[in-house]
């Protein structure tokens, strides 16, 4: 079966005859599921089953619930979600190019995709193509109830109002909007009953090169004093514009090789695109020449703002202010870091009472703690009062960006949510005497992991963003008390120190540690805080408190790997080691309960 294809349009059609969906940037896919199992097929009928095993595994998890509905066919998009309405195409593309089985399995865990389902084409072996879209959607909603909690199959939301879908697409940097006629049947061809309107972002570039052999022009921007190539374009240009620009290059440009001319920076063009992958604009389309543009303003920083604008509600100031001069990191770089890392950082900030450390003059300078929400905070900043403090709560990107604009460089979190009294995680803070003794943190982390593994407890590890490591054990909400977690932390820490008293210590006073690593389990307590995953630190090196994979904790590990810019590349290519932090906590609950009971019995006997 071939999928129904969309027709491109400029304007979103309005009226009661239409339904609207977010357009996701991924691989179009049909899921065929019969008694032989689920299989994935591309729009060109290429089988994708082996390339996305996590989706197949997700299907098999709910197979018993769906057995009575087989055979069935679902239409959807394979995506890598950055938020509920935005997919990163580059990640899906990289996943689709993997061929080695071990690499496919590795990245199915590190960069897992989803199947976003938007249509039901067959149910119980009955072909539904002649049903209207609304009828098929009703069937899909019924089917969705059988997999409501699936991590790998989700149903695309439908909306009735143009204003609603436009707001969602704009706020979440989605690829665009899909409009579907409610009474349309499903036809395996391109149809005007299904329309796509892409959300183009417009970027100003300097036109620097012309290649006559293919008719393409090159657009560049300044990164510092260097021109960086970011786009090759010709689509969208009229024949008159092409001819005029080509003649300008051939007449005034320098011929650098056969039929290739370059011009010094002098001409600006506005280019539409749907995304910037860090190297090139995706799906570029010429819009216009920009005659009154200052050439020097076509910069890498400006490009990033144009492609991924900051939330409109946030007033951004002093974007060129140096924040980490040692690594040439300005305020705009930091705000883009927060915007890009938000999908990975916000789950840990959500509903927690925030303590920030602000550096008004940049990293390494004067700093102060801030708990109380300032009087000048905008209305969208959520707060929660506990005792005498009106804490800020950071549940969304706009709050995160606003705090970043206030030069909050460090985000520190308590171990429980607001209104809660029990910890959501245990954290061991491993603090070596200095950076030159980071190997002690590696040794301590591996020793602690060995113990928690014996207890069959799941653990995660991250750098502190300074000179140490921190080990996390997730816990179910409102289940274990601080008294119980303290008993566990003290037992593990004391045991490790007794085994290696020449390397590790429980001594709080630095002057009495004698060059040993301090295992700080006392920090895990109500009212105490810990640096948030993916938070920057306020020292001059621009390091980040970075989640790690356990296999990375070895003699080659150093905190210097994890600067702000490196962490963004790391997440993009290697995924988030804390992605599954709060998944499947029932087994963790049962195993930790056994440990607490065993430790309680030991303490009674002693």
Written description of the protein model:
The protein is built from 14 helices and 35 strands. It is an alpha+beta fold and 606 residues long. It folds into four domains: 193 residues, DNA ligase/mRNA capping enzyme (D-amino Acid Aminotransferase, Chain A, domain 1, 2-Layer Sandwich), CATH 3.30.470.30; 107 residues, Nucleic acid-binding proteins (OB fold (Dihydrolipoamide Acetyltransferase, E2P), Beta Barrel); 86 residues, no CATH class; 154 residues, Alpha-Beta Complex (DNA primase, PRIM domain). Strands 13, 14, 15, 16, 17, 18 and 21 form a seven-stranded antiparallel beta sheet that branches. Strands 3, 4, 5, 8, 9 and 10 form a six-stranded mixed beta sheet that branches. It has a six-stranded mixed beta sheet with strand order 32-33-29-31-30-35, with helices on one face. Helix 12 crosses helix 14.
List the helices and strands and how they pair.
Layout: E1 5-8, E2 18-23, E3 27-34, E4 37-42, H1 53-61, H2 63-66, E5 72-79, E6 81-83, E7 86-87, H3 89-97, H4 101-110, E8 114-123, E9 126-127, H5 133-144, E10 153-155, H6 162-172, E11 176-181, E12 190-198, E13 201-211, E14 216-223, E15 226-233, H7 239-252, E16 254-257, E17 260-262, E18 268-273, E19 275-276, E20 281-282, E21 285-289, H8 300-307, E22 322-324, E23 329-330, H9 331-349, E24 355-358, E25 368-370, E26 382-386, E27 389-393, H10 397-405, E28 408-413, E29 425-431, H11 438-454, E30 460-463, E31 469-474, H12 482-499, E32 504-505, E33 517-520, E34 530-531, E35 547-548, H13 564-574, H14 586-605
Parallel strand pairs: 1-12, 8-10, 32-33
Antiparallel strand pairs: 2-11, 3-4, 3-5, 5-8, 6-7, 8-9, 11-12, 13-14, 13-17, 13-18, 14-15, 16-17, 18-21, 19-20, 22-23, 24-25, 24-28, 26-27, 28-34, 29-31, 29-33, 30-31, 30-35
Helix pairs in contact: 9-10, 9-13, 12-14
């Amino acid at each position: 079966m071939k999928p129904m294809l969309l027709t491109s349009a400029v304007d979103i059609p309005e009226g009661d005859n239409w339904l609207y969906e977010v357009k996701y940037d991924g691989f179009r896919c049909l899921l065929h599921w019969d008694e032989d199992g689920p299989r994935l097929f591309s729009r060109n009928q290429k089988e994708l089953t082996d390339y996305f095993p996590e989706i197949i595994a997700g299907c098999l998890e709910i197979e018993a619930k769906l057995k009575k509905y087989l055979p069935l066919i679902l239409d959807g998009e394979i995506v890598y979600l950055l938020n509920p309405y935005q997919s990163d195409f580059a990640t899906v593309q990289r996943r689709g190019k993997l061929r080695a089985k071990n690499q496919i399995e590795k990245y199915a865990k590190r960069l897992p995709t989803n199947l976003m389902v938007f249509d039901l084409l067959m149910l119980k072996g009955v072909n539904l193509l002649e049903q209207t879209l609304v009828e098929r959607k009703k069937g899909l909603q019924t089917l969705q109830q059988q997999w409501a909690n699936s991590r790998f199959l989700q149903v695309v939301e439908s909306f009735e109002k143009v204003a609603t879908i436009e707001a969602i697409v704009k706020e979440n940097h989605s690829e665009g909007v899909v409009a579907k006629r409610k009474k349309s049947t499903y036809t395996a061809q391109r149809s005007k009953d299904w329309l796509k309107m892409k959300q183009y972002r417009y970027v100003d570039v300097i036109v620097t090169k012309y290649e006559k052999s293919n008719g393409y022009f090159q657009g560049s921007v300044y990164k510092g004093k260097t021109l960086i190539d970011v786009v090759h374009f010709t689509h969208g240009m009229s024949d008159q514009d092409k001819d005029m620009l080509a003649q300008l290059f051939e007449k005034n440009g320098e011929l650098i090789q056969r039929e290739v001319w370059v011009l010094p920076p002098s001409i600006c063009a506005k280019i539409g695109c749907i995304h910037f992958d860090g190297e090139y604009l995706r799906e570029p389309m010429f819009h216009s020449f920009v005659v009154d543009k200052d050439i020097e303003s076509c910069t890498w920083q400006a490009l990033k703002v144009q492609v991924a604008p900051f939330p409109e509600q946030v007033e951004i100031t002093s974007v060129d202010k140096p924040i980490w001069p040692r690594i040439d990191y300005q305020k705009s770089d930091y705000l883009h870091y927060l915007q890009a890392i938000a999908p990975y950082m916000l789950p840990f900030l959500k509903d927690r009472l925030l303590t920030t450390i602000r550096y008004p003059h940049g990293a390494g300078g004067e700093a102060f703690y801030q708990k109380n929400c300032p009087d000048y905070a905008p209305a969208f900043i959520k707060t929660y009062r506990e005792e005498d403090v009106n804490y800020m709560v950071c549940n969304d990107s706009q709050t995160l960006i606003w705090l970043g604009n206030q030069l909050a460089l460090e985000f520190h979190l308590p171990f429980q949510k607001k209104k809660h009294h029990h910890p959501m995680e245990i954290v061991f803070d491993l603090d070596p005497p200095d950076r030159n003794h980071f190997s002690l943190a590696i040794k301590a982390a591996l020793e602690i992991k060995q113990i928690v593994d014996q207890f069959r407890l799941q653990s995660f590890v991250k750098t502190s963003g300074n000179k140490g490591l921190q080990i996390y054990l997730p816990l179910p909400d409102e289940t274990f008390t601080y008294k119980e977690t303290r008993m566990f932390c003290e037992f593990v820490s004391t045991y490790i120190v007794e085994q290696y008293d020449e390397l590790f210590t429980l001594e709080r006073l630095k002057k009495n540690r004698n060059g040993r690593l301090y295992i700080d389990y006392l920090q895990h307590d109500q009212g105490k805080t810990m640096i948030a995953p993916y938070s920057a630190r306020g020292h001059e090196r621009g390091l980040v408190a970075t989640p790690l994979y356990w296999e990375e904790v070895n003699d080659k590990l150093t905190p210097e790997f994890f600067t702000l810019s490196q962490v963004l590349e790391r997440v993009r290519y290697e995924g988030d080691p804390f992605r599954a932090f709060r998944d499947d906590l029932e087994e963790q609950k049962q195993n930790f309960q056994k440990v607490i009971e065993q430790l309680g019995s030991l303490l009674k006997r002693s």
